[in-house]
Design a protein that fits this description.
The complex is a heterodimer. Chain A contains 3 helices and 21 strands. By secondary structure, chain A is mainly β. In chain A, strands 1-3-4-6-7-9-10-13-14-17-18-19-20-21 form a 14-stranded antiparallel β-barrel. In chain A, strand 6 (133-148) and strand 7 (153-172) form a beta hairpin. Chain B has helices at 2-15, 42-45, 63-71, 152-155, 195-200, 214-220, 236-252, 269-272, 276-279, 307-312, 331-355, 362-371, 399-417, and strands at residues 36-40, 89-93, 96-100, 206-210, 256-260, 284-286, 294-296, 302-303, 328-329, 359-360, 373-375, 378-380, 433-434. The chains are: A mainly beta, B alpha/beta.
C-alpha cells in the first residue's frame, strides 16, 4: 500500500475534467455510480464524500485507488481546421483510512488530488499568446473525526490542508530581427487550509421476511480554500533587448487561486434479498465556482505589466445518479450518469480548459475477494462538443472533447467487530 | 474480468477517442478567382515603414497577396530585394527605442544607421511580366485616366524629372518620378500608357479595389493647405467620374470583385501620436502657407509624427518659432479631411452599387481599430508602435495589420459570393521589429 502511494505521488501529473478543474474521481465505487456516494458511505472514501458516514464502518478500513485519465481534445478555429491539445494522460490517486476508536468515535485520514488541470498545445499554435501549456496540481490532506450522536445519526468533520503547484507558459508577442517572439514561463506553489464536514443518517429500514430496504441520507460541505502563490517565479525568454526592462529574464510574482466549496446532499435506497442487493443513489452538488472570478499575476518588477484575466465563473449544480447490483454479496455491477454544468460562460471559454455542460456515463465492477479485500473497477465516458469564445482575447473555437477515465481501487478491512458492513446493518 | 477490461479499453481508445475536425473546404462559391488582381495605392502595394521592403516578407504579405493565398490562386507581385526603397526602423539607444528615418539622399544630416535604397531598386522589376498586384504607391483616382500634364512627372511617362534635381533614383531616365510605379510600363511622355490600360490588359476574373485614399491623404499628410500640385483634394465630381470609368472596365471584362471605402487615416498614429498631452507643453503652430496666423495648438489640431523630432529640438515651443504648417493638420483642416473622406466614400458606395459590386467598409472597420481589437490573445490599437497593427510610418499597416485587413476583405467576399475562403491567423504574421 505504502509503495503504491509513494509511486502515485511521484507519478501524479494532473489533468482536466469537466466541471471546472475539479477532479471527480475520488472513489472507485462512487465513480461507477455517477459519483453519488454521499448517502452511501460504504467504504473509507466516505472520509472524503461525507465524514459523517465514517461511523457506519466497523474496524479499520483502507481504500486506495487511482485513475488513468485519457483526454482527447480538438479545436477548430475560423482559421485552422484542426488543432489537437497535446495534454498528457493523468493519474490522480486517492487514499483513505477510517478506523473505529470505540462505539461512538471513528478517526480517519485522506490524501488525494481533488483539483487539477493540465493541458498543452504545440508551442507555435494559433492561440500561443493565450496559452501554450498550464498545469495545476493539488494534494489534500485531511485528518478526520466522526461521532455517532444516535443510532440513526452521525456527524464528522475534517481539517483540510492543501498544497498546490502551478505552472504555465505562453507567448509574448514581441519580436526582433533575430527572434520571432518571446515566451513567459510562470511557476509557483502555495498552500491553504479548509474543512470538510458531514452528517450521515440511516433514516429508516423496512424489513420483510425475505428482504430489507434501507433508506439513507447524507449532507456534506467542503469549504473553499484560498491557495496563495506567494513565491511565484517568472522568467521571460527570447525578448528583444529594448524590451528586457519590461520582460526581464527573471522576476517574481504573487497570485492566488481560490478552490471552490462544494455542498452535497445525497440519498440512497438499498434493497437486500437473500441472494442479491440493489442500491440506488442520488447526489446533488452545489459548487461555488464563482470564487474563481479573476486570475491575476502581479509581478514584482514594476515595468512588467500585471496580468489580469477575468474568469467570472458561475456556481454550478451537478446531479449524479447510480445503481449497484450485487450478487451473493460478492459480485457487483454498477452504472450511473451525471449531469454536469460547466461554470464557464460563453465569452469566457479559454482553450486550455474547455468546460462543457454534458451528461457523462459511468460503469464499474466490484469483486469481493475475501471478507477483507474488495477490488473495484470504474470507467467514465465523457463526450461533448461546444462552440464558444474567449472575448477578451479575441479567440473563438469549436471544441470536440472526449475523455475516458479508467479507475481501479482496493478496499481492505481489518478487525471488524460486531458490526458488519453497512450492507447488512440492522 | 481483466481481459474484458482490456478489450473494452482498446476498443474505446481506438474507436471512440477520435476528436479531430475535418479539413476545411475552400470553395469559391459563385466567384471565379482564377485571375485575381488588386488595384490600389501604397496600402495595396504592401508598403510599410515608409518604404517598400521585403526582408521579412513585408511586401510579400500585402493584404491582396494574403487574400490570393487564401483563394489558392497565383498572384505575382513586383517584389523588391535587399533593402528595397529604404525604410524606417528602430534602434535601441541610451535605453530608449528610437525611430530611425529612411536614408534621404537630398539631405546631409541622415542618421548613420538610416537605411538607404538598394541598388537593385533603380531597375526594380521586369516590366514585361504581368503583375497581379497593381497597387502603386501614391496613386489616386485623378491619375488612373486622363492624367493632368502637371502630374506626368509624378506618375506619367518617363521625363527626366522635370525641374527636380536628377541626383538620385528619382530621376532614372525613362522612368516615372514615383519609383513605386516603375514595375509598370507607362510608355513615353508623348505616347503614354495610362494606368487604366494596365487594368484593361489584366484579364481579371476577380478584383479588389482600394483606391481613393490618396485623393485626400496626400493633402493631409503634408499638413493640408496646398492649393495646387499633385497633393490636392480630388474634386468630388472628377472622383466619381473616374471611379465609374474604372468599374466600367471591370464590368466590361466580366470581372467580379469588391471595392473598399477610404479609411479615416486621421485616426492613424501619424496624426494621433504627438498630442499636447504627450508633449506636456504648450505648442505654437503656424496655421497655413498663406496665413500669418500663429497660435497655441489646441487638442483638435493634429500634429504629425514628423513634429516629434522638431519639438525635441525646440521648434514650436515659442510663438517666435512655431511648428511649420506642414507638420500640423490644424483643426479646420481636420474637418475638411474628414468631410472629404465621407464625400468620396459616398461616391465609392454609390458607384460600386451602380455597378453591382459589394463594398468592404474599411472606413468603419479600421475605425474599430481605434477602440481596439483582439486576435488570439494579442490586443491591437492605433497606438504608435505599441498598437501592433501599424508600421513605423504611422500610416501603413504592418504585416499583422495587412492580415487584419485581408480578413475583412475575405469576410465580405464570402458574404457576397458564397465562397468559403478562410481568414488567416493574424499573429502568424510579423508585427513590429523591435531592436
Amino acid at each position: 500500500m505504502k509503495r503504491i502511494i509513494i509511486l502515485a505521488l511521484i507519478l501524479s501529473p494532473v489533468f482536466m475534467n469537466a466541471g471546472g478543474f475539479q477532479l471527480n474521481v475520488q472513489g472507485i465505487k462512487a465513480i461507477s455510480m455517477g459519483g453519488a456516494f454521499t448517502g452511501i458511505g460504504s467504504d473509507a472514501s466516505t472520509v472524503f464524500f461525507n465524514p459523517g458516514g465514517m461511523s457506519n464502518l466497523s474496524g479499520h478500513n483502507f481504500t486506495a485507488g487511482f485513475n488513468y485519465i485519457t483526454p482527447s481534445v480538438s479545436l477548430q478555429t475560423p482559421e485552422t481546421a484542426n488543432i489537437n491539445q497535446t495534454s498528457p494522460n493523468a493519474t490522480p490517486f486517492h487514499f483513505y483510512y477510517s478506523g473505529e476508536l470505540n462505539d461512538k468515535v471513528s478517526i480517519g485520514f485522506l490524501v488525494n488530488n481533488q483539483f487539477g488541470s493540465s493541458s498543452s498545445f504545440e508551442d507555435d499554435w494559433q492561440g500561443r499568446f493565450i496559452i501554450q501549456n498550464i498545469s495545476l496540481k493539488t494534494f489534500m490532506f485531511q485528518p478526520t473525526l466522526s461521532y455517532k450522536i444516535h443510532e440513526k445519526i452521525s456527524v464528522g468533520a475534517g481539517f483540510v490542508y492543501g498544497m498546490g503547484t502551478f505552472s504555465t507558459e505562453k507567448g509574448v508577442p514581441v519580436g526582433s530581427s533575430t527572434t520571432t517572439e518571446g515566451q513567459a514561463h510562470l511557476k509557483g506553489s502555495g498552500d491553504g487550509v479548509g474543512y470538510n464536514v458531514g452528517i450521515f443518517s440511516n433514516l429508516f429500514s423496512i424489513k420483510k421476511e425475505t428482504s430489507t430496504t434501507d433508506f439513507r441520507l447524507g449532507v456534506s460541505y467542503r469549504s473553499k480554500m484560498a491557495v496563495d502563490l506567494a513565491n511565484g517565479e517568472a522568467t521571460f525568454t527570447d525578448i528583444p533587448v529594448s524590451l528586457q526592462d519590461k520582460f526581464p529574464s527573471k522576476t517574481t510574482f504573487v497570485s492566488k487561486i481560490t478552490l471552490p466549496s462544494v455542498f452535497t446532499v445525497g440519498f440512497s435506497v438499498k434493497h437486500t434479498k437473500e441472494n442479491y442487493s440493489v442500491e440506488l443513489a442520488y447526489d446533488f452538488n452545489y459548487t461555488s465556482w464563482s470564487s474563481y472570478d479573476t486570475l491575476n499575476f502581479d509581478f514584482a518588477n514594476n515595468d512588467t505589466p500585471d496580468s489580469k484575466t477575468t474568469k467570472d465563473w458561475e456556481n454550478t449544480m451537478t446531479h449524479r445518479v447510480g445503481v449497484d447490483f450485487t450478487y451473493k454479496n460478492k459480485y457487483s455491477a454498477r452504472v450511473g450518469l451525471y449531469y454536469d454544468n460547466t461554470p464557464i460562460k460563453d465569452g469566457y471559454l479559454s482553450p486550455e480548459l474547455p468546460g462543457v455542460t454534458q451528461v457523462a456515463y459511468t460503469a464499474g465492477l466490484g469483486y469481493k475477494v475475501s471478507e477483507k479485500i474488495t477490488i473495484d473497477f470504474s470507467y467514465i465516458r465523457q463526450s461533448a462538443t461546444r462552440e464558444a469564445s474567449l472575448d477578451a482575447a479575441g479567440f473563438s473555437a469549436k471544441y470536440n472533447r472526449k475523455v475516458n477515465v479508467y479507475g481501479i481501487g482496493v478496499n481492505m478491512k481489518f478487525g471488524a467487530s460486531k458490526k458488519e458492513t453497512p450492507a447488512s446493518i440492522d | 474480468m481483466k481481459i474484458l477490461l482490456y478489450i473494452f479499453c482498446s476498443l474505446t481508445l481506438i474507436s471512440c477517442m477520435k476528436t479531430d475536425f475535418d479539413e476545411f473546404e475552400n470553395a469559391p462559391g459563385s466567384a471565379n478567382f482564377s485571375t485575381f488582381i488588386s488595384v490600389g495605392d501604397s496600402y495595396t502595394q504592401g508598403l510599410q515603414d515608409g518604404g517598400l521592403h521585403n526582408e521579412f516578407g513585408q511586401q510579400q504579405n500585402s493584404y491582396p497577396s494574403i487574400i490570393a493565398t487564401q483563394m489558392g490562386t497565383n498572384f505575382v507581385q513586383p517584389l523588391v530585394s535587399g533593402t528595397g526603397s529604404g525604410y524606417m526602423h528602430l534602434e535601441y539607444r541610451n535605453g530608449e527605442i528610437t525611430v530611425i528615418k529612411n536614408y534621404d539622399r537630398k539631405i546631409t544630416t541622415n542618421d548613420p544607421q538610416a537605411i538607404d535604397y538598394d541598388l537593385t531598386y533603380t531597375t526594380w522589376a521586369d516590366k514585361t511580366i504581368k503583375y497581379n498586384n497593381l497597387g502603386v504607391g501614391g496613386l489616386n483616382l485623378r491619375n488612373i485616366v486622363g492624367m493632368m500634364p502637371a502630374e506626368y512627372i509624378y506618375l506619367g511617362g518617363g521625363a527626366q524629372g522635370g525641374t527636380t534635381p536628377v541626383s538620385s533614383w528619382n530621376g532614372v531616365a525613362g522612368e516615372p518620378m514615383n519609383s513605386y510605379g516603375r514595375f509598370l510600363n507607362w510608355g513615353t511622355m508623348s505616347n503614354r500608357i495610362e494606368y487604366i490600360e494596365q487594368v484593361k490588359n489584366s484579364n481579371a476574373t476577380f478584383f479588389t479595389n482600394w483606391l481613393g485614399i490618396n485623393d485626400i491623404m496626400s493633402w493631409a499628410k503634408g499638413g493640408g493647405d496646398e492649393k495646387g500640385g499633385f497633393a490636392v483634394l480630388t474634386d468630388v465630381g472628377e472622383f466619381r467620374e473616374k471611379y465609374d470609368t474604372l468599374l466600367d472596365v471591370f464590368k466590361n471584362m466580366g470581372a467580379q470583385g469588391v471595392c473598399a471605402t477610404i479609411l479615416d487615416f486621421t485616426e492613424s498614429p501619424l496624426f494621433t501620436t504627438v498630442t499636447l498631452e504627450a508633449v506636456g507643453k504648450d505648442i505654437w503652430i503656424k496655421e497655413g502657407v498663406d496665413t500669418t496666423i500663429i497660435r497655441k495648438a489646441v487638442p483638435e489640431d493634429l500634429m504629425l509624427l514628423s513634429a516629434s523630432s522638431l519639438i525635441k529640438e525646440g521648434t514650436g515651443l515659442t510663438s517666435a518659432n512655431p511648428l511649420p504648417h506642414q507638420h500640423v493638420l490644424d483643426k479646420d483642416e481636420v474637418v475638411v479631411a474628414k468631410n472629404h473622406i465621407n464625400l468620396l466614400n459616398a461616391q465609392i458606395i454609390a458607384s460600386a452599387s451602380a455597378h453591382g459590386f459589394p463594398v468592404v467598409n474599411m472606413y468603419s472597420f479600421m475605425g474599430e481599430l481605434t477602440s481596439g481589437m483582439s486576435y488570439d490573445g494579442v490586443n491591437y490599437s492605433t497606438k504608435y508602435i505599441e498598437g501592433g497593427a501599424y508600421s513605423l510610418d504611422g500610416l501603413h499597416p504592418n504585416s499583422r495589420g495587412n492580415a487584419i485587413i485581408a480578413n475583412e476583405f475575405i469576410r465580405v467576399i464570402n458574404e457576397n459570393y458564397n465562397s468559403s475562403l478562410r481568414p488567416v491567423a493574424v499573429n502568424n504574421y510579423r508585427g513590429i521589429t523591435f531592436p
